[in-house]
Amino acid sequence: MFESPCKSINVLNAWSESQEELRETQPASPPRGTGKRVKIKKKKRKEQQSEKRSDSAPQLCTDDDVQGRKETKYRPDEPIVRGIFEIGKKSHDVVLTATRVTWTPIQPETPTADRDVKKQEEYVELQDVFAVKVKRRRSVGQQTGGTLLGITLFQCKKKGLKLKDHAIHFNNLSVDHCETWFQSLKEILSGFKNRPKSLKVFVNPVSHKKEAYQIYLDKVAPLFKLADIQTDVTVTKRKGQALSILKDCSLEEYDGVVCVGGDGSVAEVAHGLLLRAQMDAGRDTDSIFTPVQAALPLGIIPAGSTDVVACSVHGIRRAVTATLHIIMGHHQPVDVCSFSCMGRLVRFGFSAMFGFGGRTLALAERHRWMPPSQRREFALIKTLANLKPEDCELSFITSRGAEDQTKAERKRDGEAICESDSWQTRHGLYLNISIMAIPCLCSMAPRGLAPNTRLNNGSMALIVVDNTSRSEFIKHLKRYGSTNNQFGFSFIETHTVEAVRLRPRSQGSWAEDVLENDSKTRPIISSEGTYPWNIDGDLLEVASELLIRVHPQLLTLFGADVEEAEESPVKCSCI
Ligand SMILES: Nc1ncnc2c1ncn2[C@@H]1O[C@H](COP(=O)(O)OP(=O)(O)OP(=O)(O)O)[C@@H](O)[C@H]1O
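Above: query sequence and adenosine-5'-triphosphate SMILES. Below: predicted holo structure tokens.
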């Protein structure tokens, strides 16, 4: 039941979701057939007996005590409620404190009983619990009422980087008893401030294998429902729709934004959130400005082909893990890059590639009619076959550490960054230049395309691949899939930087490459005098110099800091 929440949802169908429904104790209509009826009568008697038993269960707090709990500060180990529940067919003494629920089996007294019971004590930390539900038995098709069975806690369990949902059933047929427990637990759970109650969700139905909406319906929506999270879902109809919605909609009613899709969709939503924050703060995006942080955290449900952003904050490409990070309110601040051309903001993003990375994407985009993996392999092979270096002027400012960076940014708010004298500039022929603010973990590169940066270290990795032979370049590409140092070549240099400026020196050459031997199809990209950049998997055509700056912790993602992807490494079959 763990990775797939289907089972828990079947159980959920049999539960009432409010206290009002909890009071309705309409018995399920007995099925026809005398034998079964006798069984039901017996069961009813058993339930009544058990109800009597549970009524007399020891309670440390009266109802009044429980109601007054809001004002009372409990010590972490102070019992709030105590009672008897059946767990796994055995009676247990269950204690609720402000931090955990502990249960121990009730056993006949023996000289060693105390020691034995201690051994069998189990507990769940409430910080790991994301939902409490009233459990009822209902007949097929019955929507409300049903026989009360007890309460169920939903726990978020961690196994490696994987998060799973796990149900713990506490059975007791007493309405009052369950109500007290339900309310007490609800109250504690509602105190976890980072957990969202309302989310704006964008689903890209055309991501990768066009499965994003189904993934949302099957794996994500049921867990959001379980956690009582309200959702406002937009299934996008075109590229750019999420961005225009985010620019205009009222964000106050949400506690977070969720994107179900691949890296392109994530980049669009992240850009939208950040652009909106700049608009709200009155920043002039037609200048070199200091951006403000996004107002809401962003959750990413991976449904693309590579999912490097999701992989970098979850270490794993699993919808349930990603959903539980959102539900539990795990916040991970991340650094973001801004891309500016001629003093104007082009967009916000996480990573950029120029040269081989840009050309490959441009070629793949021109062959969109091919299935995704085929067009990627085709573009990779063809770009490798036509491998040529870019003649560029590359400038960068070495990072002075996140704290200094923030101070420096504040100081030069409004000033042109290029006036700084800390720029190092060089001219040369480069096969590829990557600039990455996050490690970009993925199954092709489990340690990341940029293992030398962290999610929020306030700097970017600049990876410069000088001109070299095709075979040496392929050796370097192959190293991404292994644990070997992919940068251990004399033709590669890496820097930790806070800003990069890249100016290509020969104009208009790339489009001819892309069009080579392909005169039958009309060019999709009209690219006279522009250069292809791969920005988070999206093709960006830039006519002149591009300025890339890092902005420490500008965006908060739902997730965690991850060292290495737990994905089984995928080797590229074509090199
Ligand atoms: N309804 C739509 N029709 C066409 N394009 C869309 C639609 N909705 C969103 N898009 C755009 O599709 C682009 C690609 O989507 P996405 O990145 O989710 O999938 P992918 O390319 O398969 O995955 P990955 O980037 O991980 O390889 C995004 O730039 C997004 O803006």
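The chain has two domains: 6-189, 198-558.
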